[in-house]
Amino acid sequence: MTASISVPARAAGRVPADRLAGFGPLFRKELREWAHSKRIWVIVAATTAFMVLTAANGAITSWIVTNVPGGEVPDGPIVLDPLANFFAAISSQIFVIVAIFAAMSLLIGERDRGTLSWVASKPVSRASIWLSKWAAASIVLSIVAGLIPMVATFALATALYGPVGIDALVFAAIGATASITFMVAVVLAASVIVSNQAAVAAIGFVVFFLPQLLAGLVPVDISPVLPSSILAWALGPVVGTEMGLVTPIAWAVSLIALVGFASWRMERLEF
Q: If we measure between CA atoms, which residue out of 21, 27, 30, 22 comes closest to residue 6?
């Protein structure tokens, strides 16, 4: 990633006094690189295909049972409820998995190629380098891995089963965006600790899945305090569950802690 960066001139070798020095140019550079990357099309195609097929599973099963002689009858009832099938695709949280894989190389890849040290030699703060990558990746992945596949899934579920309800799409979009933003921060924060992409991805999966698994094992319900529960919290008004403030507060506090730690660590990282 060797795109040029235009920032106000400062004395060579000096650490920028402004902790956000160069954020604007860096952020625009990151957006341009995402826009020119083929991976966004791969992300859109793969995520959309997975989500629409998941939502269409009930209709496909029903068609097979009705039209294929000797078709295997499922053990349980075939679910043809519009909201249930839309939520089946959303609850897979494939967009989180995609976000982890898409973000794991953003920082480490540049460090391995040597371009990270080149960028850091410019009059920009190291915190701005990390923040620009996090902000750009969160926005792009929320759109290409979250919103676009979600809208396609919503349209398909409506066509196959009937009206889903626009409120389901809105709240699901909010939850997916929050989940992606948080997990991108986790992955990029892990990238300033370890220098192996596989290890970074593993940390991302552990942070996302392990607390949810533990929540099902302990006698006390700890899911409201888990940042990874933000999607379920966002869907609360649609499914009729009570929405408290614990989950969004836990999400916000965890996100601020990740950003603060990663910015602090970036200033001490050797490139």
A: 22
Note whether 130 and 124 are within 8 A (CB): no
**154 membership: H or E segment, kind and range:** helix 148-161
Structure tokens at 70: 């000797």
Instruction: List, for residues 220-266, the tens digit of each pLDDT value.
Output: 888 888 999 999 999 999 888 877 899 999 999 999 999 999 999 99
Residue 100 CB partners (closer than 8 Å, separation 6+): 183, 187, 201, 204, 205, 208
DSSP class of residue 92?
T
Handedness of CA 35, 196, 251, 167 (dihedral sign): positive
Question: Exposed, middle or buried: residue 10 (CB in 10 Å: 0-12, 13-18, 19+)?
Answer: middle
Please say whether the beta carbons of 211 and 166 come within 8 A.
no
CA distances (Å), origin 166, targets 64, 83, 154, 209, 231 = 29, 10, 9, 29, 17
pLDDT digits (tens, 9 = 90+) for 64-122: 877 777 656 666 677 789 999 999 999 999 999 999 999 999 999 888 888 888 888 88
Helix (H, G, I), strand (E, B) or coil at 85: helix
Q: 119: number of CA atoms within 13 Å, CB side?
A: 30
Per-residue burial over 182-219, b = 16 or more CB atoms within 10 Å of its CB, e = otherwise: bbbbbbbbbbbeeeebeebbebbbebbeebeeebeeee
Nearest Cα residue to 56 out of 158, 202, 199, 180? 158
Tokens of 247: 């989950």
Q: Residue 186: left if φ>0, alpha if ψ -120 to 50, beta else—which one?
A: alpha
133/170 Cα distance (integer angstroms): 26
